[in-house]
Amino acid sequence: MKTILLIAHLIAIATGTGMSIANYVNIRIAASETGERRAALVYLRRQLAAFADLVIAMIWITGLALWWSLPPGVEPNSWIQVLLAFAVLMTVCHGLARMTAGRMARTGDQSLYPRMELLVSGVWISMLAAIVFAVLAFER
């Protein structure tokens, strides 16, 4: 069961990483576009973000299930704490990116693109680190 959970956890993180990188590329392209092209890219980002909510929930669910599945009396190693720190950072960056995107949609403030780039970069860098630390944390 633990192996299946670890596989699901790593797949969820890898999916989120790929989506974050795609979102970053989208933001970079959309910053220089106007009109219908920008609107289409914004729609794509909105759809990616909605799916990312589910992926992040899956990352948390599988990660906590892995932690819960540790045998009784076995202390979690220090890599789990580092993994949790990156999971929190990923979640915070995702939430702030969603809030910034909402603000951009409400106000039309295009000057927020650099902030979006930074936040989305925070998400995918956190996810890349999470892949490494998930393997180290649950290697037993």
Characterize the structure shown.
The chain is mainly alpha-helical. It has one domain: Up-down Bundle (Four Helix Bundle (Hemerythrin (Met), subunit A)). It contains four helices and no strands. Helix 2 (35-68) runs antiparallel to helix 3 and helix 3 packs antiparallel against helix 4. The radius of gyration is 17 Å and the shape is elongated.
In short:
By secondary structure, this protein is mainly alpha-helical.
Protein traits:
140 residues, mainly alpha, Four Helix Bundle (Hemerythrin (Met), subunit A), elongated
CATH fold title: Four Helix Bundle (Hemerythrin (Met), subunit A)
**What series of H and E elements makes up the topology?**
HHHH
Q: What's the tally of helices? A: 4
CATH architecture, by name, is Up-down Bundle
* Protein structure class: mainly alpha
> What composes the largest sheet?
none
State the helical fraction.
over 70%
Gross geometry: elongated
Q: CATH first level: which class?
A: Mainly Alpha
The overall strand count is 0
Report mean pLDDT, rounded to a whole number. Answer: 90
Strand content: under 5%
For the terminal residues, how far apart are their CA atoms? 13 Å
Please mark out the parts with pLDDT under 50 across 5 or more consecutive residues, or reply none: none
Number of domains: 1
The radius of gyration is 17 Å
